[in-house]
């Protein structure tokens, strides 16, 4: 490995995969609680909060690790400050641990969520961004330190690349988009307006920009394709993601009392959001077909799968229910949950796993590794997630018909008409847990166990630019 500071990424990857396993375990518990709410003393609202926040955090940590690997290689110099990166890592671990403990304490003792200096101590109670205000500041500080470290590495580096520039833009966007969730607004309409800046523009704006840069790097790394061609398509993808994603936020606005023109803006640009994701799929297949010398087939397999399922989960499953004429019936139903599961899996879970499989052999200093467990984990994970998404989609369709058209109450529909959907979701959730365990096991064993000749992947060290 040319740049020793890239080893910092190993800490972030390790924490990410462990959190991934924790997130899935909590998700299975939440799925069981949806069927039997009183099975555990810790109630569904807390396990759901832990499940969703763990998802966001482990993906964020994984993206940080990926960036710490990419930036030194693209800049052709060591990381600006390894101590700063390690301080940021441990501060992030400490803050996340404290927030988790706070959520659990609140679950057993709701009265413990006292008000201190005008803010709640354990949880704000705002869906998806429940972290208390003191944790918000720590997370924002971590993001700023992360961005400064990467930016200084790029500035002092020997070269400037399009991948570096796109990454830096995505990091700045990611940091800024967290700030709108860090102040209180008394008006519910205004509060929801700013809330969507965090919830929507983080994942469909900033994170997609970072994903575009990382996909370009991965294709460059494993296929030795022409940098100029890859970066050209990366720019097109990122521009379209921002153009459609930012204005597509309007498909949330028209439900919170904002002016009626958001009905048209949100609907039109939501329907365009799958286009850049489809271009990512085409770019991945185009690059793979043109460059037959593949240095890491497993890593490329995950990278291409990321592009495909990003289009299917975030694109198709999203646009299916976000057009205004449809969303007036589907808004707030299990169809949204199905979209969320499949979109996060395709857009970011597979992305982080792909970059891990591409970079970890270099971090471990191995030229060959056993790929069989990685492929097995992929197929089990993907089949389980597709079945979970289809199961929840079916539940959502029943819910829409029974609640929105026939006027039945939520509890009746949940208990009497959707019961078997929830049972199957829990079963496939257990399957996904097994897949995740295979992935975590493979992460810790990769490069540290004997390699079977028929399942080895040889890693050729190829130049990353021409």
Output the keywords:
transmembrane, two-stranded antiparallel sheet, disordered C terminus, 16 helices, mainly alpha, membrane, 466 residues, 75% helix, Cyt_C_Oxase_1, 4 strands, globular
Distance between the termini: 19 Å
Multimerization status? single chain
Order of helices and strands: HHHEEHHHHHHHHHHEHHHE
Number of helices: 16
Shape: globular
Strand order of the largest sheet: 1-2
Radius of gyration based on Cα positions: 22 Å
Q: Total strand count, please?
A: 4
The biggest beta sheet reads: 2 strands, antiparallel
Transmembrane segments: 12-35, 50-71, 83-109, 137-155, 167-185, 205-222, 234-255, 261-279, 300-320, 340-358, 378-402, 422-444
InterPro entries: Cyt_c_oxase-like_su1_dom, Cyt_C_Oxase_1
Protein name: Cbb3-type cytochrome c oxidase subunit I
Keywords: Electron transport, Membrane, Respiratory chain, Transmembrane, Transmembrane helix, Transport
Describe it for me?
The protein is mainly α. 75% of the residues lie in helices and 2% in strands. The protein is built from 16 helices and four strands. The strands form two sheets. It has a two-stranded antiparallel ribbon with strand order 1-2. The chain has a two-stranded antiparallel sheet with strand order 3-4. Strand 1 and strand 2 (119-120) form a beta hairpin. Helix 1 (8-35) runs parallel beside helix 3. The two termini are 19 Å apart. The model is unreliable at 460-466 (pLDDT under 50). It comes from Candidatus Magnetobacterium casense. This is Cbb3-type cytochrome c oxidase subunit I. Pfam families: COX1.
């Amino acid at each position: 490995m040319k740049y020793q500071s890239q080893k910092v990424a190993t800490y972030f990857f390790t924490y990410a995969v462990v959190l991934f396993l924790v997130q899935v375990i909590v998700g299975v518990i939440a799925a069981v609680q949806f069927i039997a709410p009183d099975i555990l003393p810790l109630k569904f609202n807390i396990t759901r909060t832990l499940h969703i926040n763990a998802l966001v955090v482990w993906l964020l940590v994984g993206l940080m690790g990926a960036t710490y690997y990419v930036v030194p290689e693209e800049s052709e110099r060591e990381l600006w400050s390894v101590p700063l990166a390690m301080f940021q890592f441990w501060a992030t671990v400490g803050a996340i641990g404290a927030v988790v403990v706070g959520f659990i304490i609140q679950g057993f003792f709701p009265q413990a969520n006292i008000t201190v200096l005008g803010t709640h101590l354990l949880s704000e109670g705002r869906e998806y961004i429940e972290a208390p205000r003191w944790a918000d500041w720590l997370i924002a500080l971590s993001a700023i330190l992360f961005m400064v470290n990467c930016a200084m590495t790029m500035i002092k580096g020997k070269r400037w690349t399009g991948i570096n520039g796109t990454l830096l833009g995505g990091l700045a966007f990611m940091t800024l988009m967290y700030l709108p969730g860090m102040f209180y607004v008394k008006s519910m309409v205004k509060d929801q307006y700013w809330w969507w800046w965090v919830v929507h523009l983080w994942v469909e704006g900033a994170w997609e920009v970072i994903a575009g840069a990382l996909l370009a790097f991965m294709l460059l790394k494993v296929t030795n394709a022409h940098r100029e061609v890859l970066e050209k398509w990366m720019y097109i993808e990122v521009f379209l993601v921002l153009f459609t994603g930012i204005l597509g936020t309007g498909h949330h606005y028209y439900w919170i009392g904002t002016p009626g023109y958001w009905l048209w803006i949100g609907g039109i640009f939501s329907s365009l959001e799958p286009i850049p994701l489809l271009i990512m799929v085409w770019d991945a297949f185009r690059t793979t077909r043109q460059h037959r010398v593949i240095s890491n087939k497993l890593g490329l397999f995950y990278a291409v799968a990321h592009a495909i399922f990003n289009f299917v989960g975030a694109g198709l499953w999203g646009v299916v229910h976000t057009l205004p004429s449809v969303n007036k019936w589907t808004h707030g139903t299990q169809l949204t949950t199905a979209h969320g599961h499949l979109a996060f899996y395709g857009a970011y879970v597979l992305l982080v796993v792909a970059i891990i499989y591409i970079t970890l052999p270099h971090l471990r200093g191995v030229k060959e590794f056993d790929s069989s467990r990685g492929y097995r984990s992929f197929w089990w994970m993907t089949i389980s997630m597709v079945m979970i998404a289809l199961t929840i989609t079916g539940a959502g369709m029943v819910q829409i018909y029974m609640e929105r058209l026939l006027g039945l109450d939520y509890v009746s529909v949940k208990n009497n008409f959707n019961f078997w959907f929830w049972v199957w979701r829990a079963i496939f959730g257990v399957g996904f847990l097994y897949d995740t365990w295979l992935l975590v096991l493979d992460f810790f064993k990769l490069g540290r166990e004997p390699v079977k000749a028929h399942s080895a992947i040889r890693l050729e060290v190829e130049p990353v630019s021409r």
